[in-house]
Specification:
This protein is α/β, with parallel strands linked by helices. It folds into three domains: 21-216, tm_1862 like domain (pyruvate-formate lyase- activating enzyme); 218-263, no CATH class; 270-350, no CATH class. It contains 15 helices and 13 strands. The chain has helices spanning 2-17, 38-46, 67-75, 90-95, 104-114, 133-144, 165-168, 176-192, 211-217, 244-252, 266-278, 310-314, 316-320, 327-330, 346-350, and strands spanning 23-28, 50-60, 80-86, 119-126, 152-157, 196-199, 202-204, 230-233, 236-240, 258-263, 284-285, 299-302, 305-308. The strands form three sheets. It has a seven-stranded mixed β-sheet. A three-stranded antiparallel β-sheet has the order 8-9-10, with no helix packed on it. Strands 11-13-12 form a three-stranded antiparallel β-sheet. Strand 12 and strand 13 (305-308) form a beta hairpin. Helix 1 (2-17) runs parallel beside helix 2. The longest helix is centred in the middle third of the chain and has 17 residues, at 176-192. The chain is globular, with a radius of gyration of 21 Å. It starts with a helix and ends in a 5-residue tail after the last helix. 37% of the residues are buried. The chain binds S-adenosylmethionine (SAM). S-adenosylmethionine is lined by residues 29-32, 59, 61, 84, 86, 123, 125, 156, 158-159, 161, 351, 353.
């Protein structure tokens, strides 16, 4: 772990030599950073130069969230904690291949509040094997009843990633219609508690939206550090080698951990801008979607914008297939090949952390 944190520091130092500026937001996530423990994690965070008002989020799992860790993170300038809760039901967690001691979520949330973090988020996943509608509603209501209650919740539809044990076991795959009901159930309950959707899978009290994720959805530049980290700069996307071992090895040898890159042409970039924007509450310019009867229940129009309705959010990829990136220029539809993900499925529409 120490070698990994040092390698991240070395990659960062080279990025500063190459002119990387101060961060306006920082997100430490993927995997479970809290496993590093207070000293290493604080060292990692402290190495990132940022503006004084920066939002700094660290992902933690409930079991590895301790008072010492949270105190060290506050000291290192962390402003926001994202807790990977997934479910409050033991059998659902077991179905997701995760174990959690009973009471660990309540304990972790109380520690986050006691440490003085005023903004934090809880991640939930619906559609795990053995989860009933009641289990899901209990989880959502249980999360809203936490003390302190989370001002931000991410609720993801379980995504079946190719090449995973889940992909190989069809009996554990969630059903699209069940998932649609679960999405509507969480949306309704969170909205009633004052947490409105601001992106398909993300809900927050006003002022608690994750600025980091909003920046990614607005195609801002970002610099990824670490294994499998992705970066974006003005239409050029790049990514690092995936495994921890390879990453440490390459960086220690003084070589670049870059594994690949792609450059988006102007049309592709504009289409992605609209696709990302469509998933958010800001929606897209009304002219970028045809005003066709089929889309009317899916899209609300007003003030020159088109915004997904709750039903539209279930079918967001269907709507995205109709986006016209250059409607103002030539009134043409994008070629089908330019639309992402092939035929739109509900699962892909409601799932995904957007990263
Ligand atoms: C980048 S992950 C953070 C890693 C986190 N510590 C964990 O244990 O997964 C962010 C969130 O993505 C969600 N997630 C992970 N795997 C998923 C899947 N297969 N489908 C949908 N959401 C998933 C979980 O809610 C997780 O907390």
């Amino acid at each position: 772990m120490e070698r990994y944190v040092d390698a991240c520091g070395a990659e960062l130092a080279r990025a500063y030599e190459d002119g990387l500026g101060d961060a306006t937001t920082v997100f430490v996530g993927g995997g479970t950073p809290s496993r590093l423990g207070p000293d290493l994690l604080a060292r990692l965070v402290a190495g990132v130069r940022r503006v004084p008002s920066a939002e700094v989020t660290v992902e933690c799992n409930p079991e590895s969230t301790t008072a010492d860790l949270l105190a060290a993170l506050r000291e290192a300038g962390v402003t926001r904690i994202s807790l990977g809760v997934q479910s409050l039901k033991g059998h659902v967690l077991a179905g997701l291949g995760r174990a959690q001691e009973p009471g660990s979520v309540e304990r972790a949330v109380a520690l986050v509040g006691a440490a003085g973090f005023t903004s934090f988020s809880v991640d939930l996943v619906y559609g795990g094997a053995g989860e009933t509608d009641r289990d899901w509603i209990d989880t959502v209501e249980g999360v809203l009843a936490l003390d302190p209650p989370p001002p931000h919740v991410s609720a993801y539809a379980l995504t079946v990633e190719p090449g995973t044990p889940l992909a190989r076991d069809a009996s554990r795959h969630p059903d699209d219609d069940t998932q649609a009901d679960r999405y509507l159930a969480v949306d309704e309950r969170l909205a009633a508690a004052g947490l409105d959707w601001y992106e398909i899978s993300n809900f927050a009290r006003l002022g608690h939206e994750c600025r980091h994720n909003l920046a990614c959805w607005r195609q801002a530049d970002y610099r990824g550090i670490g294994c499998a980290a992705h970066s974006h700069r003005a239409g050029r996307r790049s990514w690092n080698v995936r495994s921890v071992d390879r990453y440490v090895d390459v960086v220690e040898r003084g070589a670049s951990p870059l594994a690949g890159e792609e450059v988006l042409d102007a049309r592709r970039r504009e289409l992605e801008r609209l696709e990302l924007s469509l998933r958010t509450r800001g929606g897209v310019p009304a002219a970028s979607l045809p005003d066709d009867p089929e889309l009317r229940p899916l899209v609300a129009r007003g003030g020159g914008r088109a915004v997904l309705t709750a039903r539209g959010r279930l079918l967001a990829n269907e709507v995205a297939m109709r986006l016209r990136p250059d409607a103002e220029l030539d009134g043409e539809r994008p070629a089908p090949a330019a639309a992402p993900g092939g035929p739109a499925g509900l699962l892909r529409s409601v799932a995904g952390s957007g990263r």
